[in-house]
Amino acid sequence: MREDLLHFIWRHNKLPTNQLCTTDDEPVLVKSIGIQNRHAGPDFFNASVTIDGQLWAGNVEMHLKSSDWYAHHHEIDKNYDNVILHVVWEDDVVVFRKDGSKIPTLEMRNFIPSELLLKYKALMENSRSGFINCEKDFGEMDPFLLESWMHRLYIERLEHKSELIFDLLNKTKNDWEAVLFILLAKNFGSKVNGPFFLDRALELDFALIRKTSYDTHQLESLLFGHFGLLNEQDCTDAHYLQLQKEYGYLANKFGLSETIAKPEFFGLRPANFPTIRLSQLAHLYNGQPQLFSILIGSSGLKEVYDVFQVGTSPYWDNHFTFGKVSRKSGKKLSHKFIDLLVVNTLIPLRFCHARHLGHEVDEELIALLSEVTKEENSIIAHFDGLGPKTKNAFESQAKLELYNNYCSKNKCLQCVVGTHLLNRNT
């Protein structure tokens, strides 16, 4: 038994309204369930309930056991002073308000229809492969209902990504160009080096990117040195020594902080080596320190792709690391990598910028993302095995949000699919 089942039953009026009574045998009539609260405080605000002929207006709190009221210290929290009804699965202790008055308790297990409990149990144990609980029914969902849910899921995903962006905006004193650089650095680092690149980017004054952006060698020296790639004492490679000398000059001139930490190479494909990614990042900013203004003003995906059509310095045409010659190959940003930058940097940033200005661009961003190729990973492959097939990055992003924040956490009753299945024929 989970508390979210109690929320579901209350929210969808699944209780037999003419039979309800408190644990003190006082008749209960629910006139209004109130508004569900998914944040701190009581579970439902502004409910209206008649108890033993007396009409009460206030909040409703739900727990699996009555004693959870004390386990969660609600008795000393003023946010719970206006609770008019305590709805529980099991009433194991009498609960009192701070002023000593007893809170009426509705023990839900005495009133839940057995058919609903059986359907709930079946839903939670329905997985054949261990992927998601509703996998037997997911492919049969109403396409319109599923599409609407995908829209909501993707906006939730953007809101989660917004937390970092607005935090960066605060740290940079509303410098959107600096925020873009930090996000790009994080995403150029990918999963392995992303956290390290994020930390180092936060330590770098974006004003230095502006000052060095018209000299590729200087900008590349700045990034390589600041991100810990110029700390070797015994490297005799001529290009390495040139970068190291230039960075020494910049570090002395601008008082740059040193780092003994280094980005990872192990486990990465050569194209993702930090040497290649930082050179590409330097060339992206070469000659265009106002990159945010360019990207935010781009009118379509082609313009965005054109901006990201950058490569590396000639040295990296036949190198992946300093001093080790490799077969000559182009090192331009791949279409697949640019798609990741659009998904993880550009669209979240546009979303936050619009929110910051009080504009509504949700549908515009979804339309843009729908032009991007879907991600390929095991989660999307599993969903595609259930049907319908994922068509683009908008759908893959929504499904990742669905899996990571609903399916994998068994939040079936907060999901449109789960609530639809449980509501069906009950």
UniProtKB/TrEMBL annotation:
It comes from the Bacteria. It holds the Pfam family DUF2851. InterPro entries: DUF2851. This is DUF2851 family protein. It comes from Flagellimonas pelagia. The lineage of its organism: Bacteria, Pseudomonadati, Bacteroidota, Flavobacteriia, Flavobacteriales.
